[in-house]
Amino acid sequence: MSPSAIAIVRVQAFPGQAAALGLHLSELLVQVRQQPGCQSGELQALAADRWQVSTCWASQAELDAHLSGPKAQQWLGRLGSGELALGLEFESRSAE
């Protein structure tokens, strides 16, 4: 089954937090893969202090439901809080 929606999050680590951020993202990805409609997820190091999480979803509606849910909001809030990451970029697109 090919995905209908793709979500990409790029995250810049706070100085000295690259390894902790990578571990945190890896743990989050395990949980995201269990969300309804998530078909796959991948974590990639773009640089020594920059990470990318890519997920594929069965439908845009399932991706939207995930993103608006309390777990995703909590995860994104922690990433954006400056605790582990300086900031993040989010991109969502149709796979078609």
Automatic annotation (TrEMBL):
Q: Which InterPro entries match?
A: ABM_dom, Dimeric_a/b-barrel
The alphabetical list of record keywords is: Monooxygenase, Oxidoreductase
Q: Which domain of life is it from?
A: Bacteria
* One Pfam family in the UniProt entry: ABM
ABM domain span? 6-75
Q: Keyword Chloroplast: yes or no? A: no
Matching entries from SUPFAM superfamilies are given as: Dimeric alpha+beta barrel
| Gene Ontology terms, MF aspect | monooxygenase activity
| Protein name in UniProt | Antibiotic biosynthesis monooxygenase
Naturally occurring in which organism (per UniProt): Pseudomonas nicosulfuronedens
